[in-house]
Amino acid sequence: MVRINQLSMPGGAGWWRRVAAAGAAGVLAAGLAVVAAGPAAAAGPPVLAFTPSPYDYGQVTVGQKASQTFTLANSGDSASGTVTITLTGAAAFTIAADQCTRTSLGPRKSCTVAVRFAPTSAGTVTATLTATGEHATATDSLTGTGVSAAHLYWTNIRLGSSRRRQHSAATAPVLPIVPGQEALIDEVPS
Q1: What is the 8-class DSSP label of residue 169?
Q2: Domains and CATH numbers, the chain
Q3: Biggest distance spanned by C-alpha atoms of the chain
Q4: What digits encode the pLDDT tens for the residues 19-50?
Q5: What's this model's pTM, rounded to 2 decimal places?
Q6: Residue-wise DSSP of 31-81
Q7: Distance in angstroms (rounded) separating the CA atoms of residues 51 and 82
């Protein structure tokens, strides 16, 4: 004879089952199985994180740009649900490529997002890169500093010097002009 009892656990968190089998000589085997349901039964939550994090683009000349690719990884035990990538903060930061939006990252899976920093003025600015999944969120703090281009200084130049030389256009040297120093002018035939 086999006897099965199934009872609910308190709070609706699952149920347990007691099974006993008996033969002519009495009870031969008995066992207890507890089955959980709901959040307690699910695998661990997804854990999303960007690398590198945080990230500093350093100094970038105004009018130039620098790009960085960020990896979004799920180190958790369950899928993230559909991911959406957003970038808030200074307009100097823009998303250049996004392989994460509209994907669901399973356990130990990853995707990439490229962010471009292109300052339009001097100064330090910040932004926040965010990945929002149905079951997890990750953020990354971004910093960049726009710097002005190097200045061109003018100085007095002595023409007619005995130190003039001729060069072809292909071999003419390019020398910096330093404030307060005399410059040597080379003639380039046309």
Answers
A1: T
A2: 2-41 (no CATH), 48-147 (2.60.40.10), 152-190 (no CATH)
A3: 126
A4: 455 555 554 444 444 444 554 455 799 999 99
A5: 0.60
A6: EEEEEE-GGGGSPPPP-EEEES-SEEEEEEETT--EEEEEEEEE-SSS---
A7: 20
